[in-house]
Amino acid sequence: MFDRWMAGTLRERLARAFVHLFFGARQTGKSTLIRSLLPDDSLVINLADPTERSLHLADPARFLADCRALKPKAGGRLVFVDEAQTAPAIFDAVQTLYDSDKQRWRFVLCGSSARKLRRTGANLLPGRSFLHRLMPLVLAEQPPPEGSTPDADSPLPLPWPKAGEPKNLFPAWTLEERLAWGALPGVVAADEADRADVLRAFAAVHLEEEMRREAMVKDWGAFLRFLRLAAVESGQIINYSAIAQQTGLSVPTVKNYYQLLEDMFIGVPVPAWSGSQRKNLMSAGKFLLFDLGVRHAAAGVRPSPETVQANPGPLFEQWVGLEFWRRLQYLGTGGLHYLRSYAGAEVDYIVEHGGQLTPVEVKWTERPTASDARHVVAFLDENRKKARRGFIICRCRRPMQIHDRVTAIPWQCL
Q1: CA–CA separation, 327 vs 315, rounded Å?
Q2: Residue 330's domain spans which residues?
Q3: What's CA 119's distance to the chain center, in Å?
Q4: β-bridge mates for residue 70, sequence order
Q5: Which residues sit opposite 281 in a β-bridge?
Q6: Residue 190 domain flag
Q7: Is residue 203 part of a domain?
């Protein structure tokens, strides 16, 4: 069992008298993490199992009967429902049980899609629940082989919680390996020879078949064309009209499919920065697939270091953005944006957290220069009250002060 950043925090929160909603994409390790924290006397209902799912869909009262049959104990009996979104009626049953006795049970409802819950108007237990998200691995869970520089500052630090100091981290990978195979726990722990096959299976089974069921796709060929294009265009500004033209879909359908990716936690929207006084800024957002290895497989290219070497810069930029996004999800506040003007000025990421704005450029170079920081400096000048410092994330060997307010740091120090 490898250490996860959320484990200590989740262990503490599960003891609180709330319902715990636990969401995230498939293969991020949700079930593995939760099961490692469950007491032996927990009731586990696995709705990923077709047989068990059919039983609960056919008899919605079955869940109530199973829970009421549990003998009470001090601290409450823990009930874990995996893939809870496949039986939305369970959310109403949980509310009935919770409202009748807040101390008798501790419910954990785990899911990999919010779409079905939203479509059916499922009860997400407002005022009764904590919402948790599990991400693919962050840098803290899988540190680089050579370690980081202790003197370097991070644009968005994510220290380990005091309740979960790590003892067994995931295998250390180089940057090229991260860009090639992504950060899904099962892929990182797999033998190198198996990683590409695992990712292709994920793209074929989860991204295609499950999304087809979720969205009730009518034109399957057009959807597959969309999925491949969305993967190829990951990290770029979305052009709905161009994608609609290439796939034979309408613009509203393309937008709906992008929303589907987000609802299933496999798409990451990066909106354009709108806080500038400049009038010539682009307003269309960017979109990232949640994992680079999955992105390669969905785009129809083999996840491998050779794929990375063909054009590493854009993949490196996506990796940094995904790392920021995962950290922001864990920290629970803030936002991630980008800035680009029609005149060509661009800031790859603007991290909004703690009332501060931090502009970040991502460069594949090992030797960053002041020229690389010019757009970051312009953003700092324009937003002096909230933006005090900027960063360049690159492959330099150690931190470099390339402007009085801009520091270049190695990716290992992110």
Answers
A1: 18
A2: 162-413
A3: 22
A4: none
A5: 341
A6: yes
A7: yes
The model's confidence at residue 123, banded by pLDDT at 50, 70 and 90, is low
Please indicate, yes or no, whether residues 126 and 242 belong to a single structural domain of this protein. Answer: no
Residue 264, C-beta contacts closer than 8 angstroms, at least 6 positions apart: 25, 112, 113, 114, 115, 210, 211, 214
CATH number, domain of 91, equals: 3.40.50.300
Whether the CB-CB separation of 408 and 368 falls below 8 Å is answered with: yes
Q: What is the tally of structural domains in the chain? A: 2
Q: Please check whether residue 288 is in contact with residue 316, taking contact to mean a CB–CB distance below 8 angstroms.
A: no
Question: Is 80 part of any domain?
Answer: yes
Q: Does the pLDDT value for residue 79 go beyond 80?
A: yes
Does the predicted model carry a pTM greater than 0.85? Answer: yes
Q: Chain centroid to CA 44: how far?
A: 25
What confidence tens digit (pLDDT) does each residue in 14-53 have?
888 888 988 888 889 999 999 999 999 999 999 989 899 9
What DSSP designation does 238 have?
P
- Classify residue 141: in a domain, yes or no: no
Closest CA to 189 of 28, 400, 398: 28
Tokens 């049980």, residue located: 97
